[in-house]
Amino acid sequence: MAKFVFEEDGIFKAELNEFLTQEMAEDGYSGGEVRVTPTRTEIIITATRTENALGEEGWRIWELTVVVQKRCSFPEGSVGLYAEKVATESLCLIRSQEALLCKGPTMTAKSMKFVDGLMIHSGDPVNYYVDTSAHHVLLRQSVLGIKVKIMLPWDPTAKTGPKKPLFDHRNTVEPRDENAPVTKARQISLAPGSGAWMLLYKDP
Questions:
Q1: In terms of domains, do 48 and 14 share one?
Q2: Same domain flag for 67 and 131
Q3: What residue spans carry the Basic and acidic residues bias annotation (predicted)?
Q4: CATH code of 56's domain
């Protein structure tokens, strides 16, 4: 017999908790306690906003009492609902979940990438071929970050880009013409004994 009593009590508390969770989701419902006395059953509702749970002149708490009384087949006047404020809201799990549910789609972190052309991401050439700049904009609800990467072109003169070529760069040399005339050169000493020489080229 005691087993069935425990089962009925568990089913009653589960149904009551589900009902109050749906009805008082916006009032910060965090749980409830059922106290059974010989004359009546008292249900203490714990919430973060008790003024909303009570309603104007206690009208809402009276409506909830009538619904619970009819749904659980209590005799008239044998059940009472009371609202109690959460002592420490930071320790309330439902309060924390409520704060998380307040985030809309705009509060979720989101990243978007736009790529055009060639961009290298690894290796030593990234250090001198990729120019990176980042800027953050402080909005009222969040922070917007913008990061831009520009790959510089190879420039042998090192004016608009790095002078060092990429590893996959290949320089093609035109073959030498064997029929081209050979330029003759003559070596002349600028100062005897100084080791300085000058080459003079003579066209054929």
A1: yes
A2: no
A3: 165-179
A4: 3.30.300.20
**Residue 182: pLDDT above 70?**
no
**Domain membership flag for residue 185:** no
Window from 83-87, 132-136, 164-168, 192-196 with minimum mean pLDDT? 192-196
Q: How far apart are CA 84 and CA 53, in angstroms?
A: 9
Structure confidence by residue, pLDDT tens digits, 87-132: 655 545 544 554 454 555 555 677 888 888 888 888 888 998 999 9
Instruction: Using the CB atoms, write b or e for 55-85: b if 16+ within 10 Å.
Output: eeeeebbeebbeebbeeeeeeeeebbbbbee
Number of structural domains in the chain = 2
In this structure, how many other beta carbons lie within 10 angstroms of the beta carbon of residue 94? 20
pTM of the full structure: 0.38
Domain membership flag for residue 173 = no
Q: Where are the alpha helices (DSSP H) in the chain?
A: 2-23, 50-54, 59-71, 93-101, 126-129
Q: What is the DSSP string of 63-80?
A: HHHHHHHHHTTPPTTSEE
Structure tokens at 177: 């013409």
Q: Residue 161's pLDDT is what?
A: 87
Higher pLDDT: 108 or 6? It is 108
List, in sequence order, every residue forming a beta bridge with 150; answer none if it has no partner. 131
Confidence of residue 2 (pLDDT cuts 50, 70, 90): very low
User: Which CATH number belongs to the domain containing residue 119 in this structure?
Assistant: 3.30.1140.32
Range of the domain at 141: 90-102+111-164
In a shared domain, residues 3 and 27:
yes
